[in-house]
Automatic annotation (TrEMBL):
Keywords: Carboxypeptidase, Hydrolase, Metal-binding, Metalloprotease, Protease, Signal, Zinc. GO terms for cellular component: extracellular space. It comes from Cherax quadricarinatus. One of its GO terms (biological process) is proteolysis. This is Peptidase M14 domain-containing protein. The active site is at E160 (proton donor/acceptor). Residues 1-194 form the Peptidase M14 domain. SMART domains: Zn_pept. Its cofactor is Zn(2+).
Length: 194
C-alpha cells in the first residue's frame, strides 16, 4: 500500500496491516470495521490506539466508515450487503456485537445456506455459516450490524474467504481466481434467493 509521494511504503513494514494509517498519539490506525455506530466501543473492540481492534475516538470518525455510510444512505432500497474478509471460509449473518439473533435470522440463515451450497458447487470448497458472534466472536462496531440496524438492510453478511488456516492471510496466487469464482457464485445465488 502506498499513499502519497511523501509517505513511507508501509507494505515493507507490515504487509498484514489491519487498520487504516491515521496518526494517533502512540500508534497509527483505526480498525474501520469497529468504527461503525453499532454498539461502538463494545465487546471485540478496543479503546487502546495500539490495538489491532482500536475502534477510534468515536463512531464514524474515519473517512472509510463515513464513505460506506454515505454510499449506503445514498442508495434507494438496498436489499443486501456484503463485507468481504479473509480468512476462515465462513458466511456470517448479523449480529457481531451480541449473541442475540436478528429478528429475521431464520431468513438470513436460509439465504446463507443457498449461498454456501452454490459456492461449494464451483470448486468443492466448504464453508460454515451462522451469526458472527455465535460462530466466531463478539465484534462491536461492524459495518454489517450498522447496515442491518440503522440502514434497515435485511440481508447483511460477512464473508470470510479462503482458507481455513493453512496459508492464512497469505493465500497462494493459484487460489485467488478460484476463490473469486466461488465467492461470486455464492453472492449471485444469495441475491437470487431473496
Amino acid at each position: 500500500m502506498s499513499r502519497t509521494q511523501n509517505n513511507k511504503l508501509y507494505i515493507c513494514q507490515d504487509r498484514l496491516w489491519r487498520k487504516n494509517r491515521v496518526p494517533n498519539i502512540l500508534c497509527h490506525g483505526v480498525d474501520c470495521n469497529r468504527n461503525f455506530d453499532s454498539d461502538f466501543g463494545g465487546a471485540g473492540s478496543s479503546n487502546n490506539p495500539c490495538s489491532d481492534y482500536y475502534s477510534g475516538e468515536s463512531a464514524f470518525s474515519e473517512r472509510e466508515s463515513q464513505a460506506v455510510r454515505g454510499s449506503i444512505e445514498a442508495l434507494p432500497d438496498v436489499r443486501m450487503y456484503f463485507s468481504l474478509h479473509s480468512y476462515a471460509q465462513l458466511w456470517l449473518t448479523s449480529y457481531g456485537y451480541t449473541e442475540q439473533l436478528p429478528a429475521n435470522y431464520d431468513e438470513q440463515y436460509r439465504v446463507a445456506g443457498v449461498s454456501v451450497r452454490a459456492l461449494e458447487a464451483v470448486h468443492g470448497t466448504k464453508y460454515n455459516y451462522g451469526s458472527l458472534a455465535n460462530v466466531v466472536y463478539l465484534a462491536a462496531g461492524s459495518s454489517v450490524d450498522w447496515v442491518y440496524d440503522s440502514a434497515k438492510v435485511q440481508y447483511t453478511y460477512v464473508i470470510e474467504v479462503r482458507d481455513e488456516g493453512d496459508y492464512g492471510f497469505l493465500l497462494p496466487p493459484e487460489q485467488i481466481l478460484p476463490t473469486a469464482e466461488e465467492t461470486w457464485a455464492g453472492i449471485i445465488a444469495g441475491i437470487n434467493a431473496i
